[in-house]
């Protein structure tokens, strides 16, 4: 098993050596994921390459991270466990991707026959991220969320505003027939 800082890897070489790669990667190296997190975290991952029954080059593995995101109910940090099982077919172009069965998603090699590890792991973690991060229970949210769920928002005074269409209504009433 190889461990350590790795940025790119050759999936053909990995498959031919029957080696497993594993390591940790900071979410600061994953800009799209970092944008939706409240704080940096560390992802732990393992990857293996091999051939499936149709002789396609495939990647198997796992990635997991415990991340902090902003709860959309109370706007406070919420800890979320993210986990994804990786099962991808390695392709070099769109044509190869279009020939894959629905059960396999493609991962693209670059012009050097390598895959960017950070992008691969970032994609998997983004797919594992809930669309709307929030605490499991309203009780876990702060006092502000409890007030919102009961409708008791004293600090958010909604003033009566004049209807913007009132002027049009007045013009219509004043219009001679």
Helix-strand layout with pairing:
Layout: E1 2-3, E2 8-9, H1 11-17, E3 20-26, H2 31-34, E4 42-51, E5 57-70, E6 77-91, H3 94-98, E7 105-108, E8 115-116, H4 117-128, H5 143-150, H6 166-174
Parallel strand pairs: 1-3, 6-7
Antiparallel strand pairs: 2-8, 3-4, 4-5, 5-6
| Counted beta strands | 8
Number of separate structural domains: 1
Strand order of the largest sheet: 1-3-4-5-6-7
Determine the N-to-C terminus distance.
Answer: 88 Å
Question: What is this entry, summarized?
Answer:
By secondary structure, this protein is α/β, with parallel strands linked by helices.
Q: Which features would summarize this protein structure in a list?
A:
two-stranded antiparallel sheet; alpha/beta; 8 strands; 177 residues
